[in-house]
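Notebook p. 47: complex prediction with nicotinamide-adenine-dinucleotide.
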Amino acid sequence: MQLFQRLGEYDYEKVVFCNDNDTGLRAIIAIHDTALGPALGGVRMLPYPTEAEALDDVLRLARGMTYKAAIAGVNLGGGKSVVIGDSRADKNPALLRALGRFVDTLAGEYVAGQDIGTNSHDMAVIRGATRHVACVHESAGGAGDPSRTTAYGVSCGIRAALKATTGNDAFGGRHIAIQGLGNVGFALARFCHEAGARLTVTDIAGPVLTKAARELGAEVVSPDAIYDVECDVFSPNSIGAVINDDTIPRFRCPAIAGGANNVLAEARHADALTERGILYAPDYLVNSGGLIRCQEEVLGKATEDFTVYSKVANIYEQTLHVIRMASERGMSTAAAADWIAEERIAGGE
Ligand code: NAD
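Predicted complex, structure tokens below:
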């Protein structure tokens, strides 16, 4: 599809191609929609094989951020940026500041945050070139890495899924299968464990598995075996597209709720889950806790845990609302979430 055709079809506002020969920066900033507020979205740094793949990623992710903010009741729009390069080899302060100067030219229409390949220390460096940045490390006066807040929100989404499928939202005695024990997954595993859940976990990295077994009493399975675990909730917290034609027939759980983005390989997989009687808590609603934290930081409000966590806790009610709407209207939960988000964006408030 031609670029302007795609921008038109999904109503994108702006795409900025950033080139800086001095630092070698090659980046793209996409602003999807600012109807609800400035477009917030992370800076993803990856060695994209082609520029077309970088463009595709930034457009897809920016639009996803619009929907996430809308469903979470956050007054922010959707944006994203991608930097083409290997974060371990190519990332340096000069390159990050060059990106920050491009962000600054947008005068607050886009606010940068951390994502794959960047962290809260990088956001502190970017702030040297622009004030339009969130997730700045605590040592530089920011709110820091939002992952733990995201994990708390995911735990609220899981509780809603438990409530809808069992009538009881307590973790005690429940069995949660967690895929991915990174920043979000491990914090989530700890929340679930402390609330009394039994855990089965997997990751492609060994040390976190040993730690989860030792500290949380988790049972460890291989990355592929996680799809076959009989459990109350399967919680994907690693890569996208893990709900697909291969995995759907294998799931042995009544519900899926996790922090990973874009877990449905294709939109039709939401219907396939419904047909199998598996409740799907929409990913971009369940993982919106970090964004809710960023909103407070962007608006310059207090980011103490109590204020933020009480707002993130609304993910529980909002997930139940989506589930009810899906059931009443005979649609998938994914379609119900999109409908609610689109109504809010169209209303502009
Ligand atoms: P992370 O990189 O810290 O963790 C990802 C973990 O998944 C790593 O431990 C990695 O080894 C593991 N993993 C990778 N491939 C795997 C596989 N095939 N099977 C099992 N494990 C695998 O990332 P994160 O910040 O924890 O984010 C996790 C997911 O949540 C991502 O999809 C991210 O986009 C999404 N998310 C994160 C946040 C946040 O605040 N960090 C917010 C919203 C959404």
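Notes: Residues 80 and 291 are 13 Å apart (CA to CA). The two ends are 32 Å apart (CA to CA).
Next step: compare against the earlier run before touching the bench.
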